[in-house]
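Hi C.,

You asked whether I'd gotten around to modeling the 156-residue construct. I have! Everything is below, sequence then structure, no commentary in between.
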Amino acid sequence: MRSEPESTPAIAELEGSDIEFDVVRTERAKSVEESAELQGIDAEHLLKSLIVRRGTDDYLFILLPGPRQMSWPKLRKALGVSRVTMPSAEEAREATGYERGAITPLGAASRFPVFADSSVPDGQVAIGGGAHGVNIHLSSAALFQHLSVTIADLSE
């Protein structure tokens, strides 16, 4: 069995800031609902981090509450583009430094714009910590300010 790292680039980035956060480690979850249950939070407060590509080497992060699904038409409208795609797992890892399922804008290998769905709740949220079973709990307001997040209607 592989052990999880004590720290990740995501944790290191927050340790270098003035943001209050907690690291919550769990077993690797098989679903959003299971991850939320393991962390003791509502699924709406669990943020999924997706990486999308709007052009060659032009990526951005999307943050969605756990139970919500991204609306591709709404995303294209928010970005003012006609085409947005998901990169392959290999491309996503190369762009972010993280493997699929552990992607987070925190501590990513490259800085890309971050968009969050307007349904993300105020207050405490959980976001991936850069490794499976590593989660970061913090204020959504602090996270959004730290990442210079653009908020838009992106989900259904």
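If it helps when you're writing up: The longest strand covers residues 46-55.

Thanks,
B.
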